[in-house]
Amino acid sequence: MDVVGGLLQGFQVALGFNNLVMCVIGVVLGTVIGVLPGLGPPATIAMLLPLTMKLEPTGAMIMLAGIYYGAKYGGSTTSILLNVPGETSSVVTCIDGYQMARQGRAGPALGMAAIASFVAGTFGVVALMLVAPPLAQLSLAFSAPEYFGLMVLGLTMVVLLAGDSLVKALLAMLVGLWIAGMGSDLFSATSRFTFGRVELLGGIDFIIVAIGLFAVGEVLGNMEPLNPPSMIPVPKGLRNLMPTWQDMKDCRFAFVNGSVVGFLIGVLPGAGSTIASFMSYGIEKAVSKHPERFGKGAIEGVAAPEGSNNAETGGALVPLLTLGIPGSGTTAILLAALILWGFKPGPLFIQDSPQLFWGLVASMYIGNVLLLVLNLPLVAVFAQLLRIPAYAMNPLILGVSIVGVYTASGSMFQLGLLAFFGLLGYAMRKLEFPTAPMVLGLVLGDNMEKALRQSLMMSQGDPSILVRPIPAVLLSFAALLFLVPLFKKLNAFRVQVLERDS
Amino acid sequence: MKPFVRSGDFWSGIALAALGAYIVSEARRWTYVSDEGPGAGFFPLWYGGFMVALSLVLVAQAVLRGAAPAEVRWSEVRRALTAWVAFVACVALMPWIGFMAAFALLAWFVVAVMARRPQRIAIPVAVGFALFFYALFDWGLDLPLPHSAWF
Predict the structure, then answer these.
(1) Helix, strand, coil share of chain A (percent; to 5)
(2) Which of B12, B120, B131 is nearest to B62 (CA)?
(3) CB of A280 within 8 A of CB of A305?
(4) pLDDT digit string (tens) for A339-371?
(5) Nearest residue on chain A to B8, judged by CA atoms?
(6) Predicted local confidence at residue A6, as pLDDT
(7) Residue A51 above 70 pLDDT?
(8) 8 Å CB contact of B80 and A223
(9) Chain B residues touching residue A392 (CB < 8 angstroms)
(10) Residues 61..100 of B with a Cβ closer than 8 Å to A: which?
């Protein structure tokens, strides 16, 4: 079946009344889930899975997928308004989104997040539809050494995320790697850095660290002054909440960057939307004519990661549907759902179940439009959160943090960890250690170690396996990235000399 | 007192060097490389070593910089730490008095004590938030929160 024919059949399926209703339920629920920190799509989809057994599989899959990509839209709202990542993939949006909100530009940040999500999300669906088979084949060529190269490249983004001190950024990243390495070693079952606690055998959940550093740490910082500054003023009217034409022009490259990087990272199993958003943010900063604006409220710093994490959804569905390989926790649950309904995701899935595949693709086009329509007018509604006074906002954030961590883990010990990481986040702020590199190390650490050890096992300890063509290119890029600060220093010195001589 | 002794970079560098040394000492107890390839100690040994080296760079930078560090407002730090202690107390009390009562106490503390708002604001905010979270998650979404014998 050709693409046009398949898509027409898909729209016939997706525009059926029941499936349309399921799509609306999915995207609305996804947005709500995205806004609530800690309550992510994997937990929600897992909770709803037993209920969907009573539903028609196509409608159920459309709804579950709607939750998956709808949450990506909602996650940015919390990042921008509260500096709390609603979704793990929205961590990067906190950096510039929250700064924009503090500068009174919450509306344009929210609007831009929705627009970038729509543009890149739609690109992701188009790419899923058009280039799924060849890209899936390319990702099959990736094995452990290539993944190691990719992870190292991801980690070198720390150079771009560093503030004034690269040493501090690298140290924060190393602490992230240490936390990522806690728990039972997958290869040898050795308990590492568990301090004799059974609860640490499974490692520390990323979301606890993220909520602790970003949410609790922020609240502690807010508590410092006796009379804290009033909350960020909210512009009235939808027009004031929309990005300006100049903002749109500034974000042209961010749309392309977010779309392409997000989709390509999504195709690679295990990479995930958090890495995609970090990468697109790093690229955006690297190519910007004004990289110094990043971290201080650059709108491109919102558009690129938000676009990227939405395009990643389309990419993540490629290996899931065409190879039966899930690349993340959420897609693993979606795979389980498909198998429970009696489908066989893999090379023959599109051929055997065209109604489901094309119905899903078409529903994602509809879902993205619905999310844009929902999120742009609702920007004003969500922005009203900022009207809540600081004395009420602080316990609200603490409450959402406690509930998010407890409902995800059901453990008091994890709440203790949340308190610890909250204090660490506050201390890092006071000591001017950037928090983003630590999160980056935490996200990539486990996979990087796994890839390195698998590579060296494959080569029986010979490190030359890491200089095969693809990893060699990736590692060379990483090395070049590390030289960026050196070039900047040299350039600054050159300018100083020129000014002195003139 | 030397200026660098009052520097946050100096002390955080010392603390991170100690953490790096701990990581290295732990990693040395685990297998570095075996016949099957790198062991559990391989990766931690490397990043622990890097951590020690970079921490010492941070300490050296603080010592060589020499200039007096920015003044720390200890009264503000005390307020933040007080809020943190209240948060820890809330978590510690939860198994005994349940989420609703523990969180209501935390919210009351933040509003009445930290923000110095009158009781007519603090009490409704505390009770309202506790009820809201409990109703939404425990009753509405069936996501159980810590319970006590009463709540």
Answers:
(1) 80, 0, 20
(2) B12
(3) yes
(4) 778 887 766 788 788 889 889 999 999 999 988
(5) A431
(6) 85
(7) no
(8) yes
(9) 111, 125, 129
(10) 61, 72-73, 76-77, 79-84, 87-88, 90-91, 94-95, 99
Size of interface A-B (CB pairs under 8 A): 169
* Helix (H/G/I), strand (E/B), else coil: A197: coil
Contact assessment for residue A382 and residue A110, using Cβ atoms and an 8 Å cutoff: yes
Q: Is the Cβ of A167 closer than 8 Å to some Cβ of chain B? A: yes
Alpha helices in A341-353 (DSSP H): 349-352
Q: Do B58 and A188 touch (CB under 8 A)?
A: no
Q: Is the pLDDT of residue A91 over 90?
A: no
Q: Of the candidates A155, A55, A85, A201, which has an alpha carbon nearest to the alpha carbon of residue A475?
A: A155
Q: Is residue A286 a contact partner of residue A147, using CB atoms and an 8 Å limit?
A: no
pLDDT digits (tens, 9 = 90+) for A217-253: 878 888 877 655 444 555 566 666 678 888 888 888 8
Alpha-carbon gap, residue A408 to A43, rounded angstroms:
7
Whether B55 has its CB under 8 Å from any CB of chain A: the answer is yes
ipTM of the complex: 0.92
Is B12–A433 a contact, with Cβ atoms under 8 angstroms apart? yes
Kindly identify which residue of chain B lies nearest to residue A413, measuring between CA atoms.
Answer: B91
Three-state SS at B140: helix
Whether residues B110 and A430 touch (CB distance < 8 A) is answered with no
Domain that holds residue A308: 3-501
Q: Which long-range contacts (CB under 8 A, 24 or more apart) does A191-197 make?
A: A192/B26, A192/B30, A192/B40, A192/B44, A193/B23, A193/B26, A193/B44, A197/A413
CB contact under 8 A, B99 and A402: yes
The amino acid occupying position A3 is V
User: Could you tell me the two tokens for A343?
Assistant: 């489908």
Residues 16-45 of chain B with CB under 8 A from chain A are 16, 19-20, 23, 26, 30-31, 33, 36-40, 42-44
- What are the structural domain ranges in chain B? 3-65, 74-140
A108-117, A150-159, A483-492: least confidently modelled range: A483-492
Best CA proximity match to A63, nearest among A372, A359, A379: A359
- How far is Cα A444 from Cα A446, in angstroms, rounded to an integer? 6
| Cα A235 off chain centre by | 28
pTM here?
0.70
| Contact present, A297 and A99 (Cβ < 8 Å) | yes
Q: Check if A351 contacts B (Cβ < 8 Å).
A: no
Q: Residue for token digits 């997958």?
A: A186
Please name every residue paired with B33 in a beta bridge, in sequence order, or none if there are none.
B38
Q: Which residue has the tokens 């809540």?
A: A388
Residue showing tokens 């730090």: B77
B45, B24 in Cβ contact below 8 A? yes
CB A149 within 8 Å of CB A475: yes
Please tell me the total number of residues recorded for chain B in this structure: 151
User: What is the number of structural domains in chain A?
Assistant: 1
Say if residues A167 and B58 touch (Cβ distance below 8 Å): yes
